[in-house]
Amino acid sequence: MQGVGFRPFAHALATGLDLGGFVGNDADGVFAEIEGTPEAVKEFLAALRKDAPPLASIERISTRPMRPTGASTFVIAPSQAAGQRRTLVSADTATCDDCLAELRDPGDRRFGYPFINCVNCGPRFTIITGVPYDRPLTTMAAFAMCPECAGEYQDPANRRFHAQPTCCPKCGPRLWLTGPAVGGEPGAEPAVEPLGRAAQLLSGGLIVAVKGLGGYHLAADATSESAASALRARKHREDKPFAVMVATLREAQRLCEVDDTARALLTGRRRPIVLLPRLAEPDVRLADAVAPANRQLGVMLPYTPLHHLLLSQMAGPLVLTSGNVSDEPIAYADDDARTRLAGIADAFLGHDRAIHIRTDDSVVRVARGRESVIRRARGYAPEPLPVLVPFTRPVLACGAELKSTFCLGKDGHAFLSQHIGDLENLETLRSFTEGIEHFKRMFDVRPQIVAHDLHPDYLSTKYAQDLAASAEGAGLELVGVQHHHAHIASCLADNGVTGPVIGVAFDGTGYGTDGTIWGGEFLVADLAAAERAAHFAPVAMPGGASAIRQPWRMAAAYLDAAYPGGLPDKFAFLGVRQRNDAHWDAVTGMARRGVNAPLTSSAGRLFDAIAALVGVRDQVNYEGQAAIELEQLAAPSETGSYRAHQDGDDGQPLIISGTDLIGAVADDLAAGVGLEVIAARFHNAVADLIVTTCEALRERTGLAAVALSGGVFQNVLLTGKVVEQLESSGFTVYTHSRVPCNDGGISLGQAVVAAARPRGQ
Ligand code: ZN
Ligand code: ZN
Ligand code: FE
After folding, report:
1. Based on the structure, what is the number of domains in the chain?
2. Any domain includes 140
3. Which ligand is nearest the CA of 167, by number?
């Protein structure tokens, strides 16, 4: 990667070891010629890898002996212009310790300056407008360096040598504070000290929009019930949890359990939101409206100097949520933010360094002792993921529809885009199409293959088809990849394996090869191909998409399928039946006649049905809410389970009966079993049926490796049980880590499938 301080590092290393020669970069990366004593040369090579600068990514070091030229000094060779296109762009990086020390040092010329950065930290991906990565092609182009900054920039011994976004209070961006609560105009000479005043407003319970690295956040005092509730009301976000930013690791530990892995994630250079288990009795009381009825809390530490300065003036944690009205993409342009957030924010804390690429905060959690990425965005994108099967022809993969990402594949690298959002409004679609063009230019990829989902109505599918039909798309090969095959392939790529495996793909919705909606799938799959080996028996989704928004409809459809002769009298008491009495017969009738009631084998819909049945909720306000709350409800210590039968003739997929579980849950409800116990038994039952089905498929195929993918495996309780039981049954189990198991991983899966599939298939 360029601009990570590798050449100065090599220079300092060689000089310290009395080596002669030079270091430079070309199309393939960094090269160096060194001469000196054998011991010094050996030490140089060892240190090159071991002590490399934080943002350098070393894939390979190759060496060959040369005839000495008698060089006694070591120099940095000038950059080759031709070499710059290939170099990679690094992700945005949290403020480093050296910069933090300067930020807090009253004697430093950048004391208290909210835009301090260096070659080891600061904005990258979000400010790059083109390649090569050089100041004129960043949003820092508008700021001419002062002589002092220019001197540092040109000095190989300085931490700011070739640090493209470097600046200081004399020559760099400025903060401004505006909005109804303060008056003033952006860009005008501030009448007040913006940071201190913003902190005051926040402490007073007001809502402040704060410009971050990849977009605007909305900030509010996380300990103030009225501030947090006002933010919810104004954002139209009913109950989806907010994330909080805390000043220090210690503050995080006062709210949540933080294990070693979580600590490394919280304090690392990527600085994602880390989902942590909340302490039963936290030292700091957060407002209930922050994350209502949730055992987890999304926590992050400051990652820009602006955040550090702001948090240092606050007494407690801040809610920091994306700057948007519910479901819209995050605002990142100043004018747009002031328009769209006008009804939400009382003030705007912004600045004149533009954001070029909208990028949300990343979200991760710890699972099986390692990082598990749920939303991959700021701090991660656009770092490439190495792949096992190289892209012999460059690929563009267009992803799915919800939690959309795209992926470009070239040689041994997959460039997975940041989380873009749900492709349902024009603004998100524009981010998607412009993002593809930006990535193509940045990484010099000219796709020959375009991979897409099989769903004909996904905007990403239409984009792929339109592209192939356009003039510039002449000669492009279109490759359709089944949704759940893409899930499993992305899990394989995430783990650096190629299969074949038993792939368990459980999610809400994915278009099947038979035109029905799949989502509770067992596939026998490798990268090139997948075959459906087992699945839930399909049930109707009465009302189609409204069955997704109203889980009670799935409960009705499932109960009707379980008791086709009519609901037995003993179930007349069922809450879900009584609460929805007015529409019950219409909905079950719809399911029976198959009118506007597509069939689905979705595991997500089964979770919804059970959640409604036990009374968790009849309607959802965000995707997956019913299942998440069902998971929260489950009593962790319960060991009881239910049994779901499976059938299947030889050579045919096994069919698993979801209605068995519905009947068992209804029976437990009738018997007065506690809801926490029922929720736990259901989770145990799903884990059991996954394990028994995998065992049956191992009998049939001889395969003893299982890959788990799909959004349902965001369920920690379920995934933990499944992994443990599969492993004790002798399976090798692959789960997601670097790439989301939800639809954010689909584009990577499509890309590796397209690369592995023989030409023309
Ligand atoms: Zn730094
Ligand atoms: Zn300066
Ligand atoms: Fe999916």
Report:
1. 4
2. no
3. 2
